[in-house]
Write a structure and sequence with these properties.
Layout: H1 7-33, H2 43-71, H3 93-96, H4 98-124, H5 152-165, E1 169-177, E2 180-187, E3 191-198, E4 201-209, H6 223-238, H7 245-257, E5 284-285, E6 292-293
Antiparallel strand pairs: 1-2, 2-3, 3-4, 5-6
Helix pairs in contact: 1-2, 5-7
Protein name: Mediator of RNA polymerase II transcription subunit 27
GO molecular function, one term: transcription coactivator activity
Family: Belongs to the Mediator complex subunit 27 family.
């Protein structure tokens, strides 16, 4: 931006200020020391010449500082400190520390804005979408919701077929939100999961422990099942297929069924049940082989 101060300009101004302060300190140091033995018989004259030279240096440094400051761009608007101006009136040490915390929060906010702008640029260039249909085409726009407008009977048929495929996984279908299905999954005595559908499209997954109350929005109180939920969202996006939605559901359910050995089978990389740093069982399942890995070992 035109009125934005660069780091180089700010460093130059601070360097000039440090030089000026150093030269002024030399003046006061010389005055405090007074006449010294090395001044000899003409001590007063030599002291005056030394002070004159030091004051000339101060004058030169002051002109350099003025020139550097004048080169700094003027802000387009005054800084609005708001109620933070009252921090200077605090006398207690605890409240004086608020200013440092405030500065750190401003720096953090600036970084959030900077990184979010980078993320927006990268995501806008990302061609991965949950549809193979160009949303800009008016001729095909009517087909964009094809996976969402699937008949409930077709969804039930796919899920019931999956339910019959696994003896140790029970799947229950309900529709508390109109025609869209909410599928509850009990995987033996290991975990519970709930999957929200929109037509044949999986929209949300929540995984909890076997003894926990299952709902769509409350996270598990156990770290391991929060990690499994995070991995389940990744799997849901990985298996998504707008052209074969029933295959996507079957693949996801097969992947989720592989957690039947969550607490019994060790990691394929380190051959340990619990990782030495996170102390968690292998909560990741490979999308292709379904082998268990710790998050730290999957790379």
């Amino acid at each position: 931006m035109q009125n934005q101060i660069t780091i180089e300009q700010l460093n130059s101004a601070l360097s000039s200020l440090r030089t000026l302060r150093s030269s002024v300190s030399h003046v006061f140091e010389t005055l405090s020391n007074g006449l010294r033995a090395d001044h000899g018989e003409e001590g007063k004259d030599k002291l005056l010449l030394e002070l004159q030279e030091l004051l000339n240096n101060v004058n030169v440094n002051l002109r350099e500082l003025d020139q550097t400051v004048n080169n700094l761009p003027i802000p387009s608007a005054p800084f609005n400190l708001g109620n933070t101006t009252f921090l200077s009136q605090e006398t207690t040490q605890d409240r004086q520390a608020l200013y440092t915390q405030l500065v750190n929060s401003y720096k953090w906010t600036d970084k959030v804005h900077e990184y979010s702008s980078y993320a927006h640029t990268l995501l806008s260039q990302n061609s991965l979408k949950r549809s193979y249909i160009n949303s800009g085409s008016t001729k095909r726009r009517g087909k964009l919701q094809s996976n969402h407008n699937v008949a409930p009977a077709q969804v039930d048929n796919v899920i019931n077929t999956i339910d019959r495929s696994f003896n140790d996984m029970k799947i229950t279908i309900s529709r508390p939100f109109a025609s869209n299905a909410v599928v509850q999954i009990n995987l033996s005595h290991v975990l519970k999961a709930v999957v929200a559908f929109k037509g044949m499209l999986m929209e949300w997954v929540m995984v909890k422990g076997y003894g926990e109350t299952l709902d769509l929005w409350t996270e598990s109180r156990h770290h391991v099942f929060r990690k499994v939920t995070e991995n389940a969202h990744a799997a849901m996006l990985h298996f998504y297929s707008p052209t074969l939605p029933d295959l996507a559901v079957r693949s996801f359910m097969t992947w989720l069924h592989s957690y039947i050995n969550l607490f019994s089978e060790p990691c394929k990389r380190c051959n340990c049940h619990l990782h030495h740093t996170s102390m968690l069982p292998p909560a990741w399942r490979d999308f292709r082989t379904l082998e268990p890995f710790h998050d730290e070992c999957k790379q």
